[in-house]
Design brief:
- With 462 residues, the protein is an alpha/beta fold.
- It has one domain: Alpha-Beta Barrel (TIM Barrel).
- The chain is 38% helix and 12% strand.
- It has an eight-stranded parallel β-barrel with strand order 1-2-3-4-5-7-9-10, surrounded by five helices. Strands 6-8 form a two-stranded parallel sheet. The protein has a two-stranded antiparallel ribbon with strand order 11-12.
- α8 links the parallel β4 and β5.
- α7 runs parallel beside α8 and α12 runs parallel beside α13.
- The longest helix is centred in the middle third of the chain and has 25 residues.
- The chain is globular, with a radius of gyration of 21 Å.
- Bound molecules: 6-O-phosphono-beta-D-glucopyranose.
- 6-O-phosphono-beta-D-glucopyranose binds next to loops.
- Belongs to the glycosyl hydrolase 1 family.
- One of its GO terms (cellular component) is cytosol.
């Protein structure tokens, strides 16, 4: 059976500001939390003003200066869409200013103009694992209700500026990761209580819905989505207790989507808050704000996991504290590979929300070898992506409305969890090493030509 992708399916790749741009203090940019989690998103936020240190992301892959070359390479692959994020701290260096930083706004104008030259539709995340560091230092991060206003002001500023250039928006990248230690997603310390964490997340959810409302008011033709880490869990065995454990594990991330897509907290969270003696400050205005729901659901998918009622079987290995699936192989970084999981997830989300879906991250982090002739033969990446895209095609056949697919990542960049470049994702190789050495030269890998033919044939070559 040949796979039919819709005619207007958006094909492309996804990046985040802090993993590619570098130029971390250039043109008035302030420090962001991403600049301060030097060993990756699972490390603590350090005060860069107080410690004398450099970080791999300070330069990253220098997209800030090399974006025309990179966008031209994406265009050569045939991209119709590129997901980027705006670094909030380029626009509001401290987060609480009234007036934006013009140089920061001008940078993204140039990036969007460059995309437009190549007919590439931007998909823009407002906050990809970062916020201005001052908001953590001075206000205590998302634990403080004041952040809702700061974020809303930031969203309004960029909507005003880019309303004629950007049609697709996302609020918070992998918002469900805010629940995970060390809680950098919400800018809280490790020692925070459950109540403090859920309160901070509540503020983020309200801020997200306010941004959606502004988007609808200011740009009626634009579409705004949420962004979930699609951490789908299967029961480890057919024991009813394991089936229930998996159901609850999935609630742990689906609740974000439920609030953002339905406009209110699901009843299982009310029960959870009650059982854990968590009392949230939810105002009447918050409840009103939450009613503004997203237009589409977006998610990342790298792997599935298992859940069990037996706590002794939970062990680290994957991105989260997941139980490995005995039927699956894993990547070099221990991420289990499950192409069928993406079909399952697409069906699950579509049946749950009946809203269009956008796969905004999927790909394989691997060590690449540069051959003596300079070529990079990344068949393992091609196989991973091909197998996943075949399953996306199946989901489309199942009737799921899929808007597009942006791979993570079209070009090598600094990994979020490990702050390594050696965990390479790209179709384009970047000559930079974990110790910061390298020329930053870009080279097309074998997968570059594979993806080019997939896009050219609208999925027929899969
Ligand atoms: C997602 C993030 O979790 O996965 C990206 O949105 C991240 O920022 C990607 O880079 C892959 O994870 P990692 O840790 O391998 O970079």
């Amino acid at each position: 059976m040949s796979i039919q992708f819709p005619n207007h399916f958006l094909w492309g790749g996804a990046l985040s500001a802090n993993q590619v741009e570098g130029a971390y203090l250039t043109d008035g940019k302030g420090l962001s939390t991403a600049d301060c989690t030097i060993a990756g998103i699972f490390s603590d936020v350090v005060d860069r003003n107080a410690v004398d240190t450099t970080a791999i992301k300070d330069v990253a892959i220098d997209f800030y200066h090399r974006y025309p070359e990179d966008i031209a390479l994406f265009a050569e692959m045939g991209f119709s869409c590129l997901r980027i994020s705006i670094a909030w701290s380029r626009i509001f260096p401290n987060g609480d200013e009234k007036q934006p930083n013009e140089q920061g706004l001008a940078f993204y104008d140039k990036v969007f103009d460059e995309m437009a030259k190549h007919n590439i539709e931007p998909l823009v995340t407002l906050s990809h694992y970062e916020m201005p560091y001052e908001l953590v230092k001075k206000y205590g991060g998302w634990g403080n209700r004041a952040l809702i206003e700061f974020f809303t002001h930031y969203a309004k500023t960029v909507f005003e500026r880019y309303q004629n250039k950007v049609k697709y928006w996302l609020t918070f990248n992998e918002i469900n990761m805010s629940l995970h230690e060390p809680f950098t997603g919400v800018g809280l310390p490790r020692s925070s209580t459950k109540e403090q964490i859920y309160q901070a997340i509540h503020h983020q959810l309200v801020a997200s819905s306010r941004a959606v409302k502004l988007c609808h008011q200011m740009m009626p033709k634009a579409k705004m989505g949420n962004m979930l880490l699609g951490a789908v869990a299967y029961p480890l065995t057919s024991k009813p207790e394991d089936v229930w454990a998996a159901h609850q594990e999935n609630h742990g991330w689906l609740y974000f989507g439920d609030v953002q897509a339905r406009g209110y907290y699901p009843s299982y969270m009310t029960r959870y808050f009650k059982d854990n003696n968590i009392k949230l400050d939810i105002t009447q205005q918050d409840r009103e704000d939450l009613k503004e729901t997203i237009d589409f659901i977006s998610f990342s998918y790298y792997m599935s996991c298992c859940a069990t009622a037996d706590d002794s079987l939970r062990k680290k290995g994957n991105i989260l504290d997941m139980v490995p699936n005995p039927h699956l192989k894993a990547s070099e970084w221990g991420w289990q590979i499950d192409p069928v999981g993406i079909r399952y997830l697409l069906n699950l989300l579509y049946e749950r929300y009946q809203k269009p879906l956008f796969i905004v991250e999927n790909g394989l982090g691997a060590n690449d070898n540069v051959e003596a002739d300079g070529s990079i033969n990344d068949d393992y990446r091609i196989n991973y992506m091909n197998d996943h895209l075949v399953q996306v095609g199946e989901a489309i056949e199942d009737g799921v409305d899929v808007l597009g697919y942006t791979s993570w990542a079209p070009i090598d960049l600094v990994s979020a969890s490990n702050a390594q470049i050696s965990k390479r994702y790209g179709f384009i190789y970047v000559d930079r090493n974990d110790d910061g050495s390298g020329t930053l030269k870009r080279t097309r890998k074998k997968s570059f030509y594979w993806y080019q033919s997939v896009i050219r044939s609208n999925g027929q070559t899969l």
